Amino acid sequence: MENISIQQFKKEYVKKFEQLYAYRYDEGSSREHFVALGELVRNYYMNNWKSTIDEYKEKETKQVFYFSMEFLPGRMLKSNLLNLDILPVVEEGLRELGLDLDEVSMGEADPALGNGGLGRLASCFMDSIASTGLAGHGNGIRYQYGLFKQKFIDGYQVELPENWLRNGNVWEVRKENKAVIVRFGGQVYMDTDEEGNLYPRYENTKNILAVPYDVPQIGYHNGIVNNLRLWSAEIPYGEEYLFRTEEERDEVKQITEVLYPDDSNYEGRLLRLRQEYFFSSAGVQSIIRYFKTLDEDWSLLPDKIAIHINDTHPALVVPELMRILIDEEELTWDQAWEITKKTISYTNHTILQEAMERWPIDMLEHLLPRIYHIIAEINRRHIEKKIPLYGEELTYRTTIIEDGQVKMANLAIIGSHSINGVAKLHTNILINETLHDFYLMYPNKFNNKTNGITQRRWVQLSNPGLTSLLDDVIGTDWKSNPEELILLKAHVDNSELLNRLEAVKLENKKRFAKYVKDEMGIEIDPNAIFDVQIKRLHAYKRQLLNVLHILDRYSQIKENPDIDIPKRVFIFGAKAAPSYHYAKQIIKLINAVADLVNNDTDIKDLIKIVFVENYGVSLAELIIPAADISEQISLAGKEASGTSNMKLMANGALTMATMDGATIEIYDYVGKENIYIFGLKNNDVKKYHQNQSYNSRNIYEGNASIKRVLNMLVDGSIPGIYHEGQDIFNSLVKFNDEYFLLKDFDSYIQAHKQADKDYQDREKWNRMALLNVANSGPFSSDYTILRYADEIWKIEPQVENLISSYTPVK
Ligand code: C3B
Fold first, then answer.
1. Could you tell me if the CB of 357 is within 6 A of ligand 1?
2. Which residue lies with its CA nearest to atom 10 of ligand 1?
3. How far does residue 115's CA lie from ligand 1's centre (Å)?
4. What is the CB-side half-sphere exposure of residue 430 using CA atoms within 13 A?
5. Is residue 605 pLDDT above 50, yes or no?
6. The domain 462-692+741-774 belongs to what CATH superfamily?
7. In a 3-state reduction of DSSP, which class is residue 613?
8. Residue 806's pLDDT is what?
9. Is there a common fold for 60-73+110-356+406-451 and 462-692+741-774?
10. Measured from the CB, is residue 117 less than 6 Å from ligand 1?
11. Measuring CA to CA, how many Å separate 763 from each of 494, 501, 758, 768?
12. Which helix (H) or strand (E) holds 631?
């Protein structure tokens, strides 16, 4: 945008505020200031938003549409100011008006329209698509209520509604003129028209209006503003009489009312299927409407449009696109099928069986009769075509419909031209194990795209101290080309710089410590090691292993109060799915251990435990810059990629990890001296499974420290837990420890001992931290997204690419 002076900004701001509220700006609350500032900032990007979209259309630029059930953008104010290149002006202008941008920013609600990694990845990607100058947009759901607000009551997780829209949303634009109808239910009959062509005749359908709310996705200093289109369900105008009962009206409202709070767990609920079809259909319809304005031949659709599906939640775009092309645009099946496959691509985010979507045939057929017909026909043709090539056995293993269920991953693979995993190990597991049969059929569809993160939010905005250090030492080019961070490596022996890096970390730790004191009343020492595990609570992520380490450390200190180890603060942030009983028991355990340890004066503050409530994007921005240790301790082979590992590394935390997900690639970049690796490898785990040779009870019986720690769960050592202790104990001993915690325990403890030792050598630690920052550049989502663009979507940056030295990495 054009330069704006501080003076001019101040004038415009005060005017905007007073026009909005009719009282003096210095009487406003942060919330009101946020709204006023948001309203003003809109003026600064609206022209670019329009011209970006107009230009794509004029030039018929190929555009990608990223379909995702979840987006976790975080607060957008500062990110928008940063990308518009007016952050310093606004910050200073507000300061001169006696206002603080950080406080004003707190007036914005953090839209929790996602569960965790998958949703946050989608938002990093939206930022990177715009910032690398690509023509690409998001397509999702405007949930009225985001992911639940987490409270701890008596140490238990309680879920409260997250009414993020209570005060409106300044960034969104409701576009009623772009609304479409999505049809559910009823019956479909194949009929013939006057010319003798077959067409589907619908009866008794429920027609729902999908209204888009568009949210700008502003590129970094490049004038591009793309679109994030979120759909809301309404009763169609003039059809209120068709929704006569409260129940019928509620059914409409419910479609976009609340986000399902399950992460990596599949539940075949009708409402979820409604949501999935609703935003898939609305998105495809609006794309088709756009394509028709270009007046091009249908065969050119894949040259103008790419549709990407983020996991299988939007996999119904496959039959939906087929439906529109065949039923409405009257293409032949074969024409439609070619176009569909060429247009759609798919990312797989998990190999956990319990996360694989499979819809009961009855439910699909009842809710979406025509869509089910089409899926069945896709499958029939698939089987018919592949049997002669691959034989019956293999072919039937790839069927979409089996045992009364429709397998969405199979539909997504068969109906697209590309399937990728999200880290090298994950993609290899897909190719060699989980999806091996498909790999034999379609070797060229498979590819890897290791996840990434945007340094704009995760370094520039959340860690201003580190940002100015970097600017001083290596210049500012890393901001548009994060690989330049490697230049920092040349300074690894500069002790003055290392001290400065330590000072930045200390400031960030103090900032977090203040939050902890103010919000939780817990006093923590900023000189302690801040040991951080922030992610959804799931058995495979093994927060429990972290707890076992804490209990072991606690016992040792109790035994030997003069032990010479640095202080540790164990920081947890994690929500559990409301129906995930075991995960909630672990939350209760962590809180009980925190009560025990935090109030035990014998241990002289050598351990503190902070379990923050309601972890989400905004808290991550506060915690990550303050972290010394990044816990990435999933059982090898289970975490598809992980992305907090990248954010923490970029902020100078050292990684404590198993060889899993993208952490393996972090290891490859930083080298074994600058990371703590422990535990079984994927192949070791596989062997145990093959030989069925794991016996956790033997480990329990034979390992004195493990026995001591596990006994604490059941012998009353931890006040406040009841059956939780016994259930967790049983999962580890009686039920053979599904995630191999006991097997990995010793090497985990050893790795932590090494970290204690290294932390006491400040220079050594700081050097390792610096090398982590220096090697974090390749994990920029800008590079990830350029690989998607180049290799999958076949689209090119529309402006001179700021990411100057991009080299495709395989
Ligand atoms: C997550 C995976 O669990 C992470 O390993 C991965 O980094 C992210 O996706 C992003 O790729 N994931 C998720 O958050 N929700 C799912 N339903 C499946 C995977």
1. no
2. 118
3. 9
4. 30
5. yes
6. Glycogen Phosphorylase B; (3.40.50.2000)
7. coil
8. 40
9. yes
10. yes
11. 10, 10, 9, 9
12. strand 629-632
Ligand 1 mean position, distance from CA 665 (Å): 17
Query: For the segment 496-507, what is each residue's pLDDT rounded down to a tens digit?
Result: 999 999 999 999
Give the Å distance between the CA of 251 and the centre of ligand 1.
Answer: 30
643 lines ligand 1 (CB under 6 A): yes
Ligand 1 pocket, 450 CB below 6 A? no
How confident is the model over 750-778, as a mean pLDDT?
A: 98
Contact present, 633 and 545 (Cβ < 8 Å): yes
Tell me which of 62, 75, 78, 349 is the catalytic residue: 349
Length of the chain: 810
Closest Cα partner for 528 from 600, 610, 586?
610
Pocket test for ligand 1, best of 66, 118, 419, 660 (most atoms within 8 A of CB): 118
Residues 31-86: tens digit of each pLDDT = 999 999 999 999 999 999 999 999 999 999 999 999 999 999 999 999 999 999 99
Tell how far the Cα of 725 is from the centroid of ligand 1, in angstroms.
Answer: 29
Ligand 1, residue 114: give the atom nearest the CA: 14
State both tokens at 165: 């829209």
Closest CA to 674 of 565, 780, 767: 767
DSSP string computed for 232-295: EEEPPTT-GGG--SHHHHHHHHHHTTB----SS-----HHHHHHHHHHHHHHHHHHHHHHHHHT
Q: Is the CB of 784 under 6 A from ligand 1?
A: no
pLDDT one-digit tens code per residue, 440-492 = 999 999 999 999 999 999 999 999 999 999 999 999 999 999 999 999 999 99
Atom number of ligand 1 nearest to Cα 349? 19
- Domain 60-73+110-356+406-451: give its CATH architecture: 3-Layer(aba) Sandwich (3.40)
DSSP strand pairing (305-310 vs 63-67):
parallel
Catalytic choice (137, 407, 449, 535): 535
Q: Any catalytic annotation for residue 245?
A: no
- Choose one of 264, 310, 354, 781 to mutate for the ligand 1 pocket test, by most ligand atoms within 8 angstroms of C-beta: 264
pLDDT of residue 197: 85
- What SS3 state is found at 107? coil
Q: Is 308 in the pocket of ligand 1 (CB under 6 A)?
A: no
CA of residue 797 to ligand 1 center, whole Å: 27
pLDDT digits (tens, 9 = 90+) for 99-146: 999 999 999 999 999 999 999 999 999 999 999 999 999 999 999 999
Instruction: Give the whole-angstrom CA distance, residue 552 versus residue 747.
Output: 13
Residue 349 in contact with ligand 1 by CB distance below 6 A: yes
Sequence-distant (6+) residues with CB within 8 A of 771 are 489, 492, 670, 671, 674
Q: In 22-165, where does DSSP find H-type helix?
A: 30-59, 77-84, 87-96, 101-105, 117-131
**Residue 328: Cβ within 10 Å count:** 12
Domain limits, the chain: 1-59+76-109, 60-73+110-356+406-451, 462-692+741-774
Average pLDDT, the chain: 96
CA-nearest of 350, 349, 353, 363 to 316 is 363
Catalytic one of 536, 538, 584, 638: 536
Q: Please enumerate in sequence order all residues whose Cβ is within 8 A of that of 177, keeping only pairs 6 or more positions apart, or say none.
A: none
pLDDT at 807 over 60: no
Residue 312 near ligand 1, beta carbon < 6 Å = no
Structure tokens at 21: 């509220």
Query: Which one is catalytic: 343, 643, 655, 663?
Result: 643
Give the pLDDT of residue 263: 83
Count other C-beta atoms under 10 Å from residue 684's C-beta: 16
Three-state DSSP class for residue 732: helix
Task: Give the pLDDT score at 1.
Answer: 56
Q: Pick the closest to residue 343 from 318, 376, 379 (CA basis).
A: 318
